[in-house]
Structures are given as C-alpha cells and as structure tokens.
Amino acid sequence: MLKRVMRFVPTVLLIMVLLTVLMNLVMLMMGWMGFWTNITDSMPVGVYKETREKITKNSYVLLCKEDSFLQRAKSEGECEDGHKPLLKSVVAEVGDVVTISDEGIFVNYRKLRTSERLKNIRIQARNIVDYTLQDDEFLVMGRSPYSWDSRYFGIVRGSEFISQVVPVFLFYSRYEDLSFDD
C-alpha cells in the first residue's frame, strides 16, 4: 500500500510546483497590466486596477511611505526603500480641517469611526490640531484598527502616491467601511 502511494508523490509535487509557477506568472502579468492584489486586513481583500483619475476624498490609493517604525519585510517592492506600496483610502484633502490625536482622526470636526490610535505601542506619533490641509496634502486610513496610516505617519503628500486604484473584484472585508461618528 505504501509503495503505491509513494509512486504518486513525485507527480503531486510536480503539479504543486507547476501551479505555483503558473500563479506567479499570472500575478506578474496582472502587475504589468496595472492590477494589484491586496491580501491584508487593512483594506478589502481583492483585486484592484490602477486608474489615471484625479485623487480625491474616498479614493483608494497606493502610496509609498517611509517605514522605519514597523520594519515591514522588504520584497522588491515598487517603493524606493524596497517595500511594497500601502493601499489606503483618502479621508481628507485640500481645505479640510484635520486633527490627529490618540482619540482619533477628526475631519472638519467630525470623528472618523475606529480611528483611535492603538495603546501600548512604541511609535511616537505627532499630534496635529485644527490644521487646514494645503495643496497636495492628504490624510489616508485603512479600515483595520491596526492599519499603518495617517494616525501614525500624519499628512501624506501627493508625490507619495503611486496611483489611484478602483476595486475590480473584492473577496471580503473584515472591517466595515470608514465612516464618521454622528
């Protein structure tokens, strides 16, 4: 019985290797065509497509942000420091009055739900109080309370964006849409 099973092991391993190579080729081709996949909890899990539209509030964006605090694993990403871009939602743009503190992010004096900073972390985030965003300044957030976003790194400049993306196919989201406490 064991001999019969062992005859199939090389075939199964070969099939697994071929499927892995095929998936990597598909992902590479999708990247060349402007598609991105997200598998993190920070934003809905799924496939996104780059667009050339103007970045505004509620846009999904890919951005490169210096990552000295978290030290994410480098993986030949598109960012200058070797990291993969972050996928976030724009929550504030030029003209919006913003406050960022341990209590959360406030946009035009309205608090974004679940935007409080995590307690007991070693990041020295800077507070911003009643600041009016200027040209080319934005705040971004992920949906997860554990997301690395403007709660910690503050204002994002337009030059840090790679592109705007739109969802093509979403599998699920562990967290609800970003909204304001009313």
Can you tell me about this structure?
- The chain is elongated and about 70 Å long.
- Helices cover 19% and strands 31% of the residues.
- The model has no long low-confidence stretch (mean pLDDT 83).
- With 182 residues, it is of the alpha+beta class.
- It has helices at residues 2-32, 150-153, and strands at 35-38, 45-51, 60-63, 86-92, 97-101, 104-107, 110-111, 128-132, 137-141, 156-157, 161-172.
- It has a 7-stranded antiparallel β-sheet. A 4-stranded antiparallel β-sheet has the order 7-6-5-8, with no helix packed on it.
- It contains 2 helices and 11 strands, in the order αβββββββββαββ.
- The chain has a single domain (34-171), classed as Umud Fragment, subunit A (Ribbon), CATH 2.10.109.
- The longest helix is centred in the first third of the chain and has 31 residues, at 2-32.
How do the strands and helices of this protein lay out in sequence?
Blueprint: H1 2-32, E1 35-38, E2 45-51, E3 60-63, E4 86-92, E5 97-101, E6 104-107, E7 110-111, E8 128-132, E9 137-141, H2 150-153, E10 156-157, E11 161-172
Antiparallel strand pairs: 1-2, 2-11, 3-4, 3-11, 4-9, 5-6, 5-8, 6-7, 9-10
The main β sheet shows up as: 7 strands, antiparallel
Q: Which value, in Å, is the CA radius of gyration?
A: 20 Å
Helix/strand/pairing category: alpha+beta
Counting DSSP E segments of at least 2 residues, the number of strands comes to 11
Proportion of residues in β-strands: 25-35%
Spans where pLDDT lies below 50 across 5 or more residues: none
CATH C-level class is Mainly Beta
| CATH topology term | Umud Fragment, subunit A
Q: State the end-to-end CA separation.
A: 67 Å
Order of strands in the sheet with most strands: 1-2-11-3-4-9-10
Total separate domains: 1
CATH architecture classification: Ribbon
CATH superfamily: Umud Fragment, subunit A
The coarse overall form would be elongated
- The helical percent reads 10-25%
Number of helices: 2
